[in-house]
Design brief:
The protein is of the alpha/beta class. It has 3 domains: about 5-185, HUPs (Rossmann fold, 3-Layer(aba) Sandwich), CATH 3.40.50; about 205-295, Roll (SH3 type barrels); about 300-380, Elongation Factor Tu (Ef-tu), domain 3, CATH 2.40.30. Helix content is about 25%, strand content about 30%.
Length: about 375
Amino acid sequence: MQKVVVGMSGGVDSSVAAYLLKEQGYDVIGVTMQIWQDEDVCDISENGGCCGLSAVEDSRRVATVLDIPHYVMNFKKEFKESVIDYFVSEYTMARTPNPCIACNRFVKWEALLARSLSIGASYIATGHYASIDRLSNGRYVIKNSVTAAKDQTYALYNLTQYQLKHTLMPVGAYSKDEIRAIANELKLPVAGKPDSQEICFVSDNNYAGFIKEYLDDEDNKRILEEKRAGYLKDMEAAGYGFTPGNFVDIHGNVLGRHMGLAKYTIGQRKGLNLALGKPAFVMELRPKTNEVVIGGAHDVFTDRLYAGDLNFMAIENLEDEMVVNAKIRYSHKGASCTIKRTGADEVLCIFDQPQRAVTPGQAVVFYKDDYVVGGGTILRSPARDL
């Protein structure tokens, strides 16, 4: 009997995943990852998301119902280094990060998988709405789940071939309603538990406040400077994103004063406090000059972007141009584009139609048919003046 470690977050999806795998004949072990930091560093509410303080107790109660062993594994160090430090450093570089993607790649897979294999498991499993397949070329890929409404492939594009080979995703064959129905039939204590929505370590959704508090700690600031030494010299002059500066138009004309780069993102309209007599949107963040560029609704559209930190899944590498469907954020429906290599770790993505608010720091994920080709981190998106 093959052993599988199920990452149990205390939610209905991972709970039913554990049940489905047990029904398939696996030797199932439930593990909840303890990743929250000390209260004064990461103030997570009792009913927080996958790393909330209720996750352990909810998972333990589910494990009792399913009659499977349950353990808590400490991943605080990995979570801080790979998720929280990354989250803050991206904002200080005037980019908008996606911490869930980093958490998936480096904590929920890399760290959990290594520890699981060391105790004799053959696989790890999660409650993600996605599935894994193997193409004719031998490559493992993430495929869309049966329900587009809950599809989570976008946040999984960065997994490696080794990780995919040792991963099971049983929930991808079901809709959310079907998963809840199974949980209700089993009388699982989390059957009616709502899905988590916000970033788990920013309980009040105040990103800027969290980042400022993080940077008040000199050790945190030192770590950040070591990781981003070259870039942060520019950001230090801008107060790491918290020093007020100028709103400017595309010609450099000053329109007003902003409250610090960390408080803005591409495409933002609300909270600018600019009286221009017409709608104003954030077009660009310029850390070297501490400027926020403002434009009209049409100015936040572009037909191209450059991406780096690439991970290809369906192919070993991109050699020729390829037409794909690309998503530029989790909620994006995807759009047809052509991708081509422009550097050792860079691709240019040219869309058939201009896309709104292409945001540096976010992921762009490439799809072919119903599977993930690969993806990367958006570096820049020129030609906003189409």
